[in-house]
Amino acid sequence: MDVEPITHNSKNRQIVMIGCFDTKGEDFSYLYTSLGQKGAEIVSINTGVFGSTELFPITYEADVVAEAAGTEISILREQKDRGVAIEKMGEGAAMIIAELLSENRIDGIIGMGGGGGTFIALKAMKALPFGIPKLCLSTLATKDLSTHIGSKDITLMPSVVDVAGLNSISRVLISQAAGAICAMADTDITEVKHSAGSIAVSVFGNTTLCVDKCSELLKSQGYEVMAFHSVGVGGMTMEALARDNCFDAILDITTTELADELCGGICSAGPERLTAGSQKGLPQVVVPGCLDMVNFGALDTVPKKYKNRQLYSWAPDVTLMRTNKEENKILGELIAEKLNMSSAPVAILLPLGGLSKIGGIDEVFYNPEIDRVLFDAIKNNVNPSISVIEVPENINTIAFANKATGVLLDIIKK
Known about the structure:
Blueprint: E1 2-6, E2 14-19, H1 25-37, E3 41-46, H2 62-68, H3 73-79, H4 82-102, E4 108-113, H5 115-125, E5 134-138, H6 146-149, E6 155-158, H7 168-186, E7 189-193, E8 197-203, H8 208-220, E9 223-229, H9 233-243, E10 249-252, H10 257-263, H11 276-280, E11 284-286, E12 293-296, E13 311-315, E14 318-322, H12 325-339, E15 346-351, H13 368-381, E16 387-391, H14 398-413
Parallel strand pairs: 2-3, 2-4, 4-5, 5-6, 8-9, 8-10, 10-11, 11-15, 15-16
Antiparallel strand pairs: 1-7, 12-14, 13-14
Helix pairs in contact: 1-7, 2-4, 4-5, 8-14, 12-13
């Protein structure tokens, strides 16, 4: 491994400043000045529906933002529908930001606001890939905004007071926010160069032993390993980073999030799970890891329709439900459908000794009849070009890890 610094060139950082300049012009004027004092070149985007400001230059006015979203600012004003306006101005700003990105005109983005301004800024920021600094000074920063942030590397900073006119508190925080985004954009990163490449791996408590061994083997071959916890946001993040070209291959040991998406569990990663690798043409080894279970919260939170199913308390706040034959048939067909889209080499490994630690012989979820339904559904629907390998081991064993890693390395070499 070689270590070398990644340094920026000498040009000023190009920082996008986004917000509702119609109602918060004074605040953004102070932010504009603070950014300028840090040497930033500022691209300002007004997402305020009902006006603008003359306190600082506007690069993209609200009418341009609305047009980018396929509407007109006059229509949004006439509708007087706050929800629609937030959605459209966020969409339009995201379109403009994507264009700036394609022209290499953005090194960082900063926004401010209350509820509406925050949601618009976050929607726009999600148009940027991993690594471009994103900061939002918000009245909602201490709340759960995971739905709006998703898998993106967005930094939230509490505004403490409302973004509604300057005062001795807001001046301090706005100045610090300007300093933070400029510092992030200027940061030199020391990167470790892995001669072999980077590999994404999905993991769960019930596959930890396997993934630990896979990681050890891959690292010994010079690969960088990035592990993602398959609890919903983990799978979403892995898919998003694959689309941002962060990986050279994927070892998807733990696809349990597909079962949660099917059955309404709490660890769903959404319908796009298990699609990015195929769409980006990445070599993949995929395992139906932990598809023998669906995750719910405490026992009393399990939906009524599942109360008579086989349930297991993994922790006081985690109840696992054993998937049945019907669900496994659907999941097998789904895996085949998603992987059939790939133009790159793909292999599927089937652990005949169980899909999880608790799915092994003599364990609570051990049921080879149900597992066989899943395996047959995969084999009956997958393209002939995809290798399907049956391994007579439990997934959570060193032997299975050795096999999975060996198959992936063979695929990469080919």
